[in-house]
């Protein structure tokens, strides 16, 4: 069972990246300006590509998913734009931030849910490296998050994404135990795998500055972009794991220099 998923974050007014989601240059790297995102959506919508809810399986061959991480305040506008184009989105929420400045309110989450989009969890506190937490702390991150969303939405939540892309089998097992049935990672792949009762799905990342054509190519797999993301991700993996302080230093310097 293969499916392509695209990972977006916030959509912001040009020059005001801190208005939605987590502040700072590292987070801003993932935020698209409004005009750019509108161009992405128009290109995706006009392509005939279907964007479906992950929980509406079985998917048809070639279906794709659109996901939006963090739960920044722009989610409600993004959801409105998707609805205009007849697309379903997945909004993965850092639940400890709900009703705080720069993030969605509980009422907005209900509106997004009512409009037919998926509202899911992106952990409770967005830990820096969720894969390094103890089992008890992992259980708390997912259970607290899922409980909060259940209270807000009035129904169970079965979809989530891993914060920061720090996936591990223990992260997935804790999510499954909390009732998550679909867990998006940041692994750039269309392949899925099962951990306990949970389906694990990769995603392709969209950064600011990427063109609408790139987004469509990642959704469709029509050129070498998917392979390039896969190669970059797998080259960085040992660096992330083995040389963590150096990796964070280099990444910070690189982002600050942009
Ligand atoms: Zn995140």
Automatic annotation (TrEMBL):
Q: Where in the cell is it found?
A: Secreted
One Gene Ontology cellular component annotation held by this UniProt entry: extracellular region
Q: Which GO terms describe its biological process?
A: carbohydrate metabolic process
Residues making up the signal peptide according to the UniProt record: none
Q: In this protein, which residues make up the domain named NodB homology?
A: 62-258
State the UniProt keywords alphabetically.
Answer: Signal
- Principal location listed in the UniProt entry: secreted
GO MF terms listed in the record are: hydrolase activity, acting on carbon-nitrogen (but not peptide) bonds
Q: Can you tell which superkingdom this protein's organism belongs to? A: Bacteria
Q: What is this protein called?
A: Polysaccharide deacetylase family protein
Species whose genome carries this gene: Dyella soli
């Amino acid at each position: 069972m293969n499916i392509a998923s695209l990972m977006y974050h916030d959509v912001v007014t040009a020059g005001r990246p801190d208005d939605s989601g987590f502040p700072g240059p590292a987070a801003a790297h993932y935020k698209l300006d409004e005009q750019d995102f509108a161009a992405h959506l128009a290109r995706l919508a006009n392509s005939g590509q279907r964007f479906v809810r992950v929980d509406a399986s079985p998917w048809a061959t070639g279906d794709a998913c659109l996901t939006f991480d963090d739960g920044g305040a722009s989610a409600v506008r993004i959801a409105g734009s998707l609805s205009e184009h007849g697309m379903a989105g997945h909004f993965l929420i850092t639940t400890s931030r709900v009703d705080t400045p720069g993030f969605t309110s509980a009422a907005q989450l209900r509106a997004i849910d009512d409009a037919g989009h998926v509202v899911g969890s992106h952990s409770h506190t967005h830990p820096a490296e969720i894969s390094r937490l103890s089992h008890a702390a992992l259980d708390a991150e997912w259970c607290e998050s899922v409980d909060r969303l259940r209270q807000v939405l009035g129904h169970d939540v079965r979809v989530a994404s891993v914060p920061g892309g720090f996936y591990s089998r223990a992260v997935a097992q804790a999510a499954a135990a909390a009732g998550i049935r679909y867990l998006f990672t940041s692994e750039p792949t269309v392949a899925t795998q099962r951990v306990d009762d949970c389906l694990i799905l990769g995603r392709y990342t969209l950064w600011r500055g990427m063109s609408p054509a790139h987004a469509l190519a990642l959704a469709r797999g029509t050129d070498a972009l998917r392979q390039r993301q896969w190669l970059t991700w797998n080259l960085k993996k040992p660096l992330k794991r083995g040389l963590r302080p150096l990796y964070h230093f280099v990444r910070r310097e690189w982002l600050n220099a942009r």
